Fold this protein.
Amino acid sequence: MRIVVLMKPVPDPGEERLGADGRLDRSVSAVINGNDEYVLEAALQLVEAHGGEVTLLSMAPAGMTDPIRKALAMGAARAVLVTDPGLAGACAWSTAQVLAAALRTLEYDLVLAGADTSDGGGGVVGSAIATLLHHPYLSHARKIEPFEGGVRVERISAVGHDVLEAALPAVVAGTQLLGEPRYPSLRGIMGARSKEIATRTLAEIGLDDRPVGGAHATTTLLDTRAPAARGSTRVVRDLDPAAAAAAIVDFLVERRAL
Amino acid sequence: MTAAPALGRLTDDQRAIRDAVQTLARERVAPRAAEIDRTATFPEDLRLLLAEQGILGLPFPERFGGLGADLLTVCLAIEALSSACATTGLILAVQELGALPLLLAGTEEQLDRFVPGLAAGSDLIAFALTEADAGSDAAAVRTRAVRDGETYLISGTKRFISHGSVASLVTVFAVTDPEADRRRRLSAFVVETTSPGFSVSRLEHKMGIRGSPTAELAFDDVRVPVANRIGAEGDGFGLAMRTLDRSRPGIAAQAVGIAQGALDAAAAYAGQRRQFGKSIGEFQLVQGLLADMDARTEAARQLLYTACDEIERGAPDAGRWSALCKLVAGDAAMAVTTDAVQVFGGYGYLDDFPVERMMRDAKITQLYEGTQQIQRLVIARALLARDA
Amino acid sequence: MGGVWVVGEVDAAGALTKLSGEAATAARALGEAGSLDVRGVIVAAEPDGAAASLATFLPVVLTVRSPEALEQTAAAVIAARVAALVGAATEPPSYVVVGATPDGRDLAGALSALLEVGVLVGATGLAWGNAAEGVPAGPRVEMQPFGGRIVTTSAFTGDRGIILLRSNMVVAEPLAAPGRVEAGAAVEGLDVAPVRVVERIVAQSTGPSIDGARVIVSGGRGVGGPEGFAGLGELAGLLGGAVGATRAAVDAGWVDYAIQIGQTGKTVKPAVYLAFGVSGAIQHKVGMQTAETIVAVNRDPDAPIGEFADLFVVADLAAVVPALAAALRARAG
């Protein structure tokens, strides 16, 4: 099974900060988007069990290769990085078009993406890509397995889960319920140094005359600010259980919550 | 980390390996450290983790499934692990120590036979030189190896043997020629712990590194093939000394790791703990403690890294470098962990916080693989020999 | 200028979801401020019941009967139908508002590709803005990326776009008189790659739903096991609330995913959130930080939840839970 994993480098969660221009500072250390790491693990397990290999596909600034190297160290065979100065500030719709165009240059049976991203919420790009490529889209997967030439997915639902089946090639968006990602082994880390990260410009994926990238963004950020403080925390400690319980009841009464 | 080690001197591979081991140490090792210490149980789960991740394969040649890492890289891994748990850092240090005689003087046949299992981490190997009456005076070993046809019969008792009860192989130093000069009396052997006559006669109860089993090993006419002798008869003492020249940096790395772990814990605590209406880190007396801890740790680290480079490039005074770095790092670990307990105040004395464990763990780095006094002897002898 | 469409979501029982009413209310406010026509759309196998519910919030609701929605995943089917409706409309909408549920996200992505428009994901607030700063008049969308560490306002650069609204950000308000339901223009065929739904598994319910609960008693790793959650269930019963959980507790198998709160679970906004043994990691915080009152009980004085709880009790929850239950019972007399 040939699997392409869409991987988004995001700022290290908890390290995010705004630059002087009020925009997200992309110079803080980047990591693999959380959910993407889980689907990469699922992809690696699929090829370990059924043969094939995993290719990473990212759209990111040229220098942002550390997270890609880590993913290669986990076991992906190669990476394709679409990078172009014109892509800075790209919106979700642009991103979907770029990744769909890049996928058209690759051979694959399955495309895996994270169900959402820690930086922008996301979760719509996979669906848009599937629609553009006319592939079935199976989202919110907690389990992915091959099935009679197709793919079967358990999709979490509000009340439990649905079992879905579709033909290949398909796009599957996975969640953290797929299972903990592995740590890259030291051997994997050493081996990743010699793996290929092929860079592609917009021209190379046939999009240089399309309205994609920052200049054609469909959405724009007007303002960023720190969230309003919740007010101060009242801390209670060193009380016996009954007194602690009474403190909670009193507080709820004071807040008119009881 | 409050203090990132200088990056300029490390290669990309070294940096990547250090970062990866740090991540494992933080996410998988640190949460286990207190329990390992409290229950004094060898962390088999973490040994498996180190094996799976290839960390135990670091010191071994690639052709046997290892990673062929240089000494500095091995030390970076020991340091990272030890910053979370000194017992876990020691797993790699002892694996290297026990295997070094083989790596330094083993035949291709011996390497073929023993190293793949060691590199994969499925086998652990211990280093058995010390005896009850042969500690600092290593040449005073009494364990005998008597030639009997194509085998040797080994009998005697080894003491203070790290991993002695969990290893499947032990590198044993025994007397083959009692009449010879003290530097030619010993030979080295690889003994499989399944051999008849081998037994673990006692496990020590220790102040620190409590998860690392320290065993007394009894050899009761243990029959070992001649093919398991490392080097020629009489080469044992020299081999032991060359091994220690190369292994002491591992202990220095353990010491630097312990110091860094204690410094990180103390700095974090100083930022949180409030007294007299402000964080204790705002008091200059506490700041002074923290600054001295950082200076000591970083100085020890830089000396360690330099020593690794010198030893790796085959410096003629390798013994001096290894003694220097262990001396400085062991003392730094003891001082820094003691100060860390001080920063925590009364809480530091409780096992609710990691610094009291780190202080107990630090002490061993001043004792094993040559006491600090022996390190000074080694250094001084090197100086005097240079002038002679 | 075109109007605002709200695509309503239908639950497994065929009823309109609560979030759809919230989305309709938010869209109506946009319509009033921007002088835009607002209408609802329901695409379902049996759309009439949900359409009638949506019409309590909106003057006009279009229905599309789509039996495929039963055997296939809904989002692709709905996206194709809505896109066709848009194509056939004499006045196609400028903006489409959808609830930010799993289906809503799938729908928005597909619709964005079919209509070639942008999407703003996870709105926590919506307002109308006049033309300024190089953007035309249109919706101004507040979002809280990175688990709420940053609050942003975004806009569409053109006059079209899709907005995904998070739950519990708007209070649903019905119209004084319900609107009318109309059958949408019939569209033949469906140009989507099918995904068959082979089976729908309903997990055993663990109690009242956390959706819309006024009080949520939530547990994390510190609860220690399913027995601990039984204690939380008792508390929830005494407070008339529901039990929630962190991902750690769900991953440990102590409770079902249906009650997971956070980045990979649900977003809740109860009046009272009682957190026991919850560290307050950012992935959890994103799901509950807008609760009106947060009370946390944790043995670890350094737990991050101490930084945003209103009351932080540093104590062993194993002792506090029964004591609190006793206090509440005594109070109830």
Observations:
- Chain C touches chain B through one residue (CB under 8 Å).
- The longest strand of chain C covers residues 119-129.
